[in-house]
Amino acid sequence: MNSPAKQHPNPGQRPVLTVSGLSVDYEAEHPVHAVRDVDLVLGRGEILGLAGESGCGKSTLAYAVNRLLRPPASVVAGSVTFHDPGGDIDVTGLRGRALREFRWNKLAMVFQGAMNALNPVLNVRTQLEDVIAAHEPGTGKHERRKRCAELLELVGVDPRRLSSYPHELSGGMRQRVMIAMSLALRPDVLVMDEPTTALDVVVQREILAEITRLRAELGFAVVFITHDVSLLLEISDRIAIMYAGRVVEEGSTERLRRAPSHPYTVGLLNSFPGITGERGALHGIPGHTPNLADPLDRCAFAERCPHRRAVCADERPPLVSHVDSPAGAHERVACHAYDPHKYGSGTPASLLRGEFHPTERTEVNL
Ligand SMILES: Nc1ncnc2c1ncn2[C@@H]1O[C@H](COP(=O)(O)OP(=O)(O)OP(=O)(O)O)[C@@H](O)[C@H]1O
Fold first, then answer.
1. Is the distance from CB of 115 to CB of 194 less than 8 angstroms?
2. According to the model, what pLDDT value does residue 228 have?
3. Which residue stretches of the chain have pLDDT < 70?
4. How many other C-beta atoms can be found within 10 angstroms of the C-beta atom of residue 95?
5. Contacts of 349 (CB under 8 A, 6+ apart)
6. Buried b (16+ CB within 10 A) or exposed e, 190-200
């Protein structure tokens, strides 16, 4: 392992968003540390997948990046920087008008269950026009109408649907309208939180194809959040895996498919059927995610890990680069099993083969 290093995801590709040391707490009698010390770099035009089980902090991170956190949540450390051609923008420090101008224009969000977020008493045209009118008040009525029709066409919906109300549209169409809305001001970054989870598999595939087509056409970058890592293998350029508020592995999709390194990533990959329908034995990860109010100064996955040793219960493994990752590559993992000095022997062969056997567990008191 090399020492932790801030590297660029793809050499030669400019970053559009940098998250540095970000931590978010939910204030309570015992504060919930929902996001802990997260570093991520999003390249221009890149699709970065963010995966992890429910409760690992994905949505909290997305809300922090879009400055949508409300009490009791607050950013307790770190920063988010948007790299605008006109100069860097400190997103964490934006207030008032500057923040309103940033949202939708630079970075837009498609929320979990967004298709149910459309206003049921307004037709599609009014809702799309509202976004344009609010952010570009100088746009004339004729121009607004033209842009609304173009936006629907862009996402593969017949512009005649502009006069439809949400209840007259299928779930897939409503989700396409939400994507059209997020693209209304041509942002550089789209944060999509479980955008297809509520849809059936066929419609889900259509929407994913639409997102990748639009990305190629318009060049925006995407942070795509889901608990379904097999879906991310289909659409992402890079993937970050979160566990208990931290990123525990990060790498190119190609590498994560070929050689997932963290036992949790391996477990997740064995928990989902491939979206392409390939069949194989599926093994869930036994046990539960830890309590995020705990200090977790050990490996948070240790209780559930088939490869744990005493060191895993004693020390939290840092997120560090692989020794064998090419210079400048953003390939990182937080697991003692890759550090023979800490682990006491080489990485277990079954882990290197990408197998997850919960029964292999070595009993260590935690
Ligand atoms: N208002 C709140 N007060 C206290 N804790 C909260 C609050 N909202 C979320 N949390 C906690 O923060 C942690 C992270 O939640 P978050 O919703 O970000 O996870 P997630 O990975 O997006 O999960 P999901 O996939 O279910 O949306 C969880 O432990 C959750 O219980």
1. no
2. 86
3. 1-12, 114-115, 273-283, 323-329, 359-366
4. 8
5. none
6. bbbbbbbebbe
Handedness of CA 79, 108, 10, 240 (dihedral sign): positive
ipTM: 0.97
Q: Name the residue at shortest CA distance from atom 29 of ligand 1.
A: 55
pLDDT of residue 116: 74
Q: How far apart are CA 297 and CA 309, in angstroms?
A: 15
Q: Report CA(293)–ligand 1 centroid distance (Å).
A: 12
- The confidence score (pLDDT) of residue 270 equals 86
| Nearest in space to 305 (alpha carbons), one of 344, 275, 345, 268 | 268
C-alpha 270 chain-centroid distance: 20
pLDDT of residue 325: 67
Q: Which domains does the chain have, with CATH numbers?
A: 15-236 (3.40.50.300), 265-365 (no CATH)
CA distance 73 to 340: 39
> Residue 322 is encoded by which pair of tokens?
């692989």
CA 108 to chain centre: 14
Are the beta carbons of 227 and 246 closer than 8 angstroms? no
CA–CA dist 199, 285 (Å, integer): 25
Positive/negative CA dihedral, 124, 127, 129, 135: negative
Tokens of 336: 């003692």
- The answer to pTM > 0.80 is yes
What's the pLDDT score for residue 71? 96
187, 107 contact by CB (below 8 A): yes
Q: Any idea which residue has 């504060």 for tokens?
A: 31
- For residues 25 and 58, the answer to whether their CB atoms sit within 8 Å is no
Q: Which atom of ligand 1 is nearest to the CA of 61?
A: 18
Q: Are 322 and 316 spatial neighbours (Cβ–Cβ below 8 Å)?
A: no
φ and ψ at residue 141, rounded to 5 degrees: -60, -45
At position 13, the amino acid (one-letter code) is: Q
Scanning the structure block, which residue is given the tokens 């789209």? 190
Ligand 1 test: best mutation among 56, 223, 225, 241, most atoms within 8 Å of CB? 56
**Pocket around ligand 1: residues whose beta carbon is below 6 Å from it?**
26, 28, 32, 34, 52, 54-60, 72, 227, 292
Give, rounded to a whole angstrom, the gap between the first and last alpha carbons of the chain. 25
